[in-house]
Structure formats: structure tokens, C-alpha cells
Amino acid sequence: MTWVAEAAGSAYGVHNLPYGVFRSAGRSPRIGVRVGDFVLDLDGAEAAGLVLAGDALRQPTLNAFLALGRAQWTTVRTRIVELLTAEEHRAAVQPLLVPLDQVELVLPFEVGDYVDFYSSEHHASNVGQIFRPGGQSLLPNWRHLPVGYHGRAGTVVASGTPVVRPMGQRNTPDGPVYGPSTRLDIEAEVGFVVGVPSPLGGRVGVDDFAAHVFGVVLLNDWSARDIQAWEYQPLGPFLGKSFCTSISPWVVPLEALADAWVPAPAQEPAVLDYLRDVPHLGLDLRLTVDWNGTRVSEPPFAGMYWTPAQQLAHLTVNGAALRTGDLYASGTVSGPRRDQVGSFLELTWGGAEKVLLADGSTRTFLADGDTVTIGATAPGPDGTTVGLGEVVGTIAPARPD
Amino acid sequence: MTWVAEAAGSAYGVHNLPYGVFRSAGRSPRIGVRVGDFVLDLDGAEAAGLVLAGDALRQPTLNAFLALGRAQWTTVRTRIVELLTAEEHRAAVQPLLVPLDQVELVLPFEVGDYVDFYSSEHHASNVGQIFRPGGQSLLPNWRHLPVGYHGRAGTVVASGTPVVRPMGQRNTPDGPVYGPSTRLDIEAEVGFVVGVPSPLGGRVGVDDFAAHVFGVVLLNDWSARDIQAWEYQPLGPFLGKSFCTSISPWVVPLEALADAWVPAPAQEPAVLDYLRDVPHLGLDLRLTVDWNGTRVSEPPFAGMYWTPAQQLAHLTVNGAALRTGDLYASGTVSGPRRDQVGSFLELTWGGAEKVLLADGSTRTFLADGDTVTIGATAPGPDGTTVGLGEVVGTIAPARPD
């Protein structure tokens, strides 16, 4: 039990301990770990010799710490638990606890490459039916490999960053026009943060997932459906996605999710050997999507067809190098039911069915001023809950000029 | 006239002065500028106070220098020309000239995001005919916007880096199989290097190209056509490209290409306002492609349908931020004739027609051990020629394990 009384029973107790980067009291960004509704200042803790990580905790981003690898991640975590549970450390550590409401949380790591997968069967087949009515809902490759593509790493931002409605080109019956996107959407996703790099020409197999991946964030891959629909053939999504991708401020380490692994859906037909993960496990993360405060969906991550280990093995099978800070996302998390989908495209079935919000207003796609909050929890040890924080964004009006 | 006698008449005279990063005599990487067959050590020059750029030339990559912006780029260039032409500087500068054959040239800048366009009408329609026989050779969006997508920044490498044949998944009549790519190809391209960043939510218009772009590299976007053909729907190329993208070691500044601008092909239908560049200019870069020493193609960059300024305006129209080190490439440069194409897919028309090399052997796609060299020149001032260096790669065998 932690001596941080307020953390007892919290989804952010010492069984969780997610890492982030915060600013407070006008100081420059520092690494911290969340415990209850406090941030433990790890920069201060390392400066005081309370935890030792070769100054990796005294940096403005998590990258140096992410690069240390699993043995040192575990050592640091074990020490932090010790600091927060042994009464003898209380006097030294208590002054390093900063109330969460006194900090600003910033982007926790510098993103290397950003890859987005498309691994929910329900999402892929919904999108197929909406965009290609009468056609195949799943394309022939979908069950053979985790379809994915590269997004724009430079526009991955911290939760809370305003999402400026993108300008762009869309097609109309009278030809292409330029203007603010009229079909602005979300994609509720889970992101995996790479710590340990791999060399060019090498490969990271399904069994090496935990040696390279440090932890998990929530991710909103904001999407302009009108821009995307016009631009995406034949090279895939580009400007319909690259204006903004938001991530949650807390990177939840894999150690905190040890009790959240569950059997992933059976795969039929059988996958090629390099994608065969035994055991074949997904993460039981339970997402929530709130639209201006109205809970509109609860996407279940456990039902994803492709697992995080398979995604990583596929991503590197061609010899692509990994860098510390690489981020790969699951793709939109959608379950089988309409109240489990991770995009408004699906929730409104292509904009055809309105959603009623608690204030009595209705929506198809996002209006200026709308706020979307994606949260998640996972089962922790001994009946506890692990919180994954939230990724929040509010739509700012387009800037036409 | 430069006092570096060997540089007179060279495509790397003081009218060119491309920047790179080199290693020599066991020392760590330093910034240099090429003059004739020498590298002028700019790290040494700044250390000696011969050129001043706030220590931006004393870094292991060009990024800090790229971030300085056009006014300082011009100041530094003017000063380097002075150092290399005024006899009074000879005694101080000559010791800083390192023969090119004594240096190793490394990746000149840390790549931010890497975007690849698809801006040659001949290439796009050739690929359309090869991949979609009987269908439209150009898709409906192609003349309305410069189609592009994000590639993997972390696998952009320096010229000379071995290109390991990728393993991966391809489809066969008997279903998907895993193995070394059997259709390994090149894409001869021109890359544009962003110096000055732009804020998220802002836009860089067609007229602001020269305020943000520092210069030009040659680029080979190595492509595994079998992997690409199976994976690319609906989200675009992924592993078929992400194993390796090579760039030339010398970044040729826009100043050196001032005489290379020529009218770009007329665009019909007219483009939307945000893409209208007046004057509508392309660069008269004359590329060469050598396959094991046999010249197989001379792609003309001047014929590209979309201009570099239009590509940049499109890339940022949705508010996407630019970072120093962002790299965007033209897409495969192909002219109208078969001996002007920038890929072997086109040269062999999908692998149907063999190419005869000078040693009497024939090829469709790349064999292990093959070397491809892409070079280019441009017209310089007063009848001179500007050399863009070369991007070279040799195919190493796949690593099956």
C-alpha cells in the first residue's frame, strides 16, 4: 500500500504508474509519474539520488528513458514503487509530489515514425460498406496481413491541443472545391510506444514485442472524411489525417497491463508463420468516447483482429528499422455494436443517422467548439483498475485566409 | 574565379557549393561544402572564425543551419564564395580543404517527416496501365491535386548504404506467401529539403516555397513491387517502400539552381486557387539512371506536372506543420519515352520486357549485387553546369532467418 493516501483505490495507484512530461510553476518540462491525483517529479527524484537512471529521467522528453530497455524500465519501476510505499521514504518524496491540477501535461516523447494500422474487423468492414456499398466489405488482403500506413509524426500533439478544422479539397457533383472540411471525425485508437530501437535490415519477431515496446497511449486520429475520400486513391490517406493526431499524456507501461492480456479473436485463415503469435493475445482495454459530455460509444479493444505483437512483426518484417519514440496505432477500435464504434463515420453510418447529445442538439460530424474525450481502463492486479488517462480535443474554427 | 584551380570548369565550382556532412581521419561527422573534388570543412572554418553562423556549422547534421532561414543561408553562401575566390583567404582556407576521396559522406540531415508525391503524369499513367490494364490510366483526382503520402523517415539513408532485399508477403495464385521480394525496383526522384518550420494550423502558400525550402537532393525510393501490389489497398504503400530510401549526400541549395527554373507543363483543367503558382515553374534537372554501369534512362525533371511549390502548398493546406529536416520527394520522374522512365517497372513494362546490360546480361527487376546510380545535372549561370551528385545503392541478399 502506498503512503500517498489519496492514491488508494485509484486507477492510478502504484499498480499503474504511467509516465508523462509536465510543466509547473513556470519551469521547463520535466518527467513525472502519476500516482493518484499527483505527479511525482522524477527529475527532482533523480537529482536527489532517490532513483537512478543515468540522467535519463532528467530530460525534457521520455526518449532517453524509453531507450534504456526492459531491464532498466523494471528497475526504475520497482524503485518508484518502493519510494511510494515504504514509509521511510515519505519525508524525502512527499515534497516531490505535485498536484495534478497544478501542472500542464505536454507531449511525453518525441515521435519517431508514426504508423497507423487498420486492425478492427468491425471498423474495416463498416468503412468498406459505407465507402464501397455493394462491394466487398473487407478487401482480399485484410485477413492475411495487418494493413497499415505511415502518418505524419510532426503533427502528433498532446491531449488538449486545439484541433483546427482543416481546409482542403473535396469533390462535389460540380467538381472539386476548396474549403473547410465538412465531415470532421474522430478515430478512437490505442497507440504503442517503441522504446528499444532495431537495426535497418533486422526484424522484430512476434516474440520480441515486450523487448521493444515500452507502453501504451490513447490516440485520436482526427480525420477529415471529405478530404480523405477524394485524395486517398491510389496512395492512401494523406491530408485527411495529417492535420492533427492527439495522444493521451500518460504512457502506461506494459508492466501495468500484465493482467489485461486476453485471448485475441481466432484468425481464419491461418496467418503466415512470421505473424503467428503463441499465445495469441490482445489487451482488454475498455475505451469510452464522450461527445460534448455525452457518452456515445464504448469500444472494446479486446476484440481487435490483429494483435500489437503481430503489428510490430509486420511493420519490421521488411527490415525497417525501429527508432526510440516510434509510435504505432491500432487503427480505429470498433466493436460489433453501433454503441461500440470508434468513429462518427460509423456511429452515423456515413452521416446518414443523427446522434442526439445530452443538451438536446444533434450531430453527424464534428461542429466547431465540440469536445471529444476518449478514455480507457483495463483490469489490474487483485481486482484493481488501471486508468489510461484521456485524450481530449476541442474543434477550433477553420482559418480560411 | 576560385583559387581552387581544380574546381574551375567543374559542375561543383563556386556557382554550386552543395552542403553535406562528412567523416574523415577517424573524426566525428562535420559539415562541409563541396568545391571541385574537395570538401571545405565548415566546422573548421567556423571554429577559425572564417565564417559565422552562430555555431550552426559546428553540428553533426545540417539541421541547425537549415533552420536559420534564407537571409542567413545567403550570408553564409556569399561568405563561402568570398573565401574560395579572394586570394587573400587562400592561406587560411586551403588547410581546410579535404580531398573528396578521403572522406565518407553520411546522411546530411536528420529527417523530420518524409512525404512522397506522384507528380509525373507519364509515371502515373504508365503505372495505371500496368496495374489496372483496361482501366483509367489516371485516376479522377490526379489532375486536381498532387497525390502524395507519408513514407518512413527512419529508413531514409545516405547514398552507398547497402539495400537489403526485403522479406515480405506477396500474393500468388495459390494464396499469399512469405519470402524475399522478387520484384525489387527503383524510383528515381528529386527530394526537397525543408529548412524553416511552420506552425501547426498555419499554411505555406505557393509563393512561400523559397522561404521554407533550402535545397534539393536526389532520391531513390527503393520499391518492392510484389509486396506493394498485395498490401496497398486501401491505405497505400507501406512495407513495399519502408525498407530503404536513399538520398544523395549533397544538398544543393536553391541559390545554385537559380538558372534552372523553366516553365512547367500547362495544367488543364485549371487548378484551385491555393495551387495556382504564378509563374508556374519547374526545375530543369536532367537525371540519369545507370544499372550496373549501363545507362538505361535519362528522366527529365522539367516535365513534371506538379511543381515543387504546388506540392508544398498542398502538403500544408490542411494546417500540417513543417519541421526543419522535413523531406518531400517528387515521385518517380518519368518522361514520355521509354528511355526516360524512372522505374524498372516502367522500363520493363511490368517485367514483360527484358533490359540488356553492357555485360551482356539481362534484367527485369533487380538482382542481388546489382548497383544503381542516379545522377543529375542542371544548367548553371553563364553556361556552367550544376552537379547534383549521385545516389548509389547496391542490393544485398535477403536475410531469411
Automatic annotation (TrEMBL), chains A, B:
It comes from the Bacteria. The keyword Transmembrane does not apply. Pfam families: FAA_hydrolase (PF01557), FAA_hydrolase_N (PF09298). This is fumarylacetoacetase. Its EC number is 3.7.1.2. Keywords: Calcium, Hydrolase, Magnesium, Metal-binding, Phenylalanine catabolism, Tyrosine catabolism. InterPro entries: Fumarylacetoacetase, Fumarylacetoacetase-like_C, Fumarylacetoacetase_C_sf, Fumarylacetoacetase_N, Fumarylacetoacetase_N_sf. Residues 15-108 form the Fumarylacetoacetase N-terminal domain. It comes from Plantactinospora endophytica. Its cofactor is Ca(2+); Mg(2+). Pathway: Amino-acid degradation; L-phenylalanine degradation; acetoacetate and fumarate from L-phenylalanine: step 6/6. The keyword Transit peptide does not apply.
